[in-house]
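BUG: 3D viewer hangs when loading the predicted structure for this chain

Environment: internal workstation, default settings.
Expected: structure renders.
Actual: progress bar stalls at 90%.

Input used:
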Amino acid sequence: MSDLPESRRTAAHRGSRARIVLWIVLALVLLLILAVAWVGVRGALAKGHLERAVGDVDTLRSQLTGGDTAAAQKTAKHLEREAGAARSLTGDPIWGASQNVPFFGANLRAVRQVSVVVDDVARNAVTPVADVIGGLGTDSFAPKNGKVDLQPIVDAQPAVAKATTTLARADRDADAIDTSDTLSPVTTAVAELRNALSSASAQVTTANRVVQLAPAMLGNDGERNYLLLFQNNAELRAGGGIPGAVALLQTDDGAIHLQNQTSGGSFGPYAQPILPLTPDTTGLYGSITGKYMQDVTLTPRFDVSAKLARAMWKQKFGEQVDGVLAMDPVTLSYILEATGPVKLPTGDTLTSDNAVKLLLSDVYARYSDPVVQDAFFASAASAVFDKVASGDFDPQQFVSALSQSSGEDRLRLWSADRAEQRRISGTAVAGELPTESASSREFAVYLNDGTGSKMDYYLEKTVSVGSSVCRKDGRPTSVVEVTIKNTAPADAATSLPEYVTGGGDFGVEPGKIKTLIATYAPEGAIFLGAAKDGKTTAVQTATDGGHPVAQLQTLLAPGQSLTYRVAFLGESKYAKAPVQASSTPGVRQSEARPIAFECDQPLAAG
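Structure tokens produced before the viewer hung:
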């Protein structure tokens, strides 16, 4: 039995326990310090790897642009190593546990998610594409010895498809990163990642569609025949311009030939539409849409126009084409920047600077016979195509020309193959009606000539669009504004050729321009009203495939202009989505401008 008193023994026991607790606390503090140091050091290392990965992306972009594919492949491998290192450094158990610490945990969690996303993109998108990029560049689509080598494009299909899927997933994962409690540098980094992924995903999706479609459409599996519509913007149609010349474009194992050219005026009129038309199409654009080749693009639905043109070609020549392509003289002018000047049979030299004026204005002053005009138009297109088919052009400028043209709605493509058409659908060349989603609400303005002449060469147009939530139920009010002006000379009635003014043959006084303006809203919208030059006006209201349409007929003398406003009520679920508007491309085309309006007077002039 101990000689110590009971009180002293109890105190000693308590002291021992206190020391144990103290040591435990000190150990925990030490572990916490070590953990913080561990996470801090690894975080600093991960930050360095991510920064170097970002630098690799810029280097890679420059190398690919410059065509240095060998260097690009090395950079891609280095990018993959840097991204993998960042992912590894932020993936250990200590980092994982630290993600649950208040405040700092949110930042660590975000950095970890960024590392995972970047690593996934590096391994499953950048590296696979870099491995095949040596045989696939912008010059892959340039004919050599009269044909495009399709094998490198076929070889690239799996890698590009994988990259597309990876980037789409990465785009979603980046959007899901929670930055509500992160520090400013982390928040900024995540925002930059999202922007980069969104842009890259859209670009790669487009590239994938091209890579998947191009071989088959260029005849890799056998001969293909396409109907080519040359649209004349001097006489507007909702889909672009009147199809003044038509030709057969044949592809076979990468070789491209333009043949069997004829005038659009040589088709029809047919007693009945060549194919059945919907009541919507007939009500807005008339049965003539299906009776004349020159009117198939009265509807903005290019799939409808293409099917009608295809049926007319088959009836006239007995050939069933595999698809339809449409372009205009402005597109030819862009392509001429890549090919350089082209000599025409007439002795004229067609250049990027004079193509539009020569084809849409000068030709009418020079030749009074419409047949000769169409022949001149066709010969110009043929000369440009021959230059392209020979491969004698700058590939990068050529791709840029096609990109600019499709971005301005000047280039259209439809395939009779349903699987191919599904890939085309949703792209800039599909020629589809406006859509609505959480990312954007689209409106469209379509112009059809009512003069029966080539006066639209002198028609200028600007489009503006804006939206605001003006109601308690959250439904947005959207306004589309269109301003058009007749820029023809004051003496147009006498100074311009009769074929250009129409000579009054269709009831329009020479020099004036008659235009039908159809404004389309997304499905589910409600027409609220319209105004012309600030005053309420009556318009034709209709629907086209569920899209509300407001159509106005205008008549402008030289120098006159008018402003037309239309208001629609949208659905609340998409109220926050930004609005945009496309329009029929004329001789000149510009992006839609933003517009503001008062909720109590949305139709009032600004």
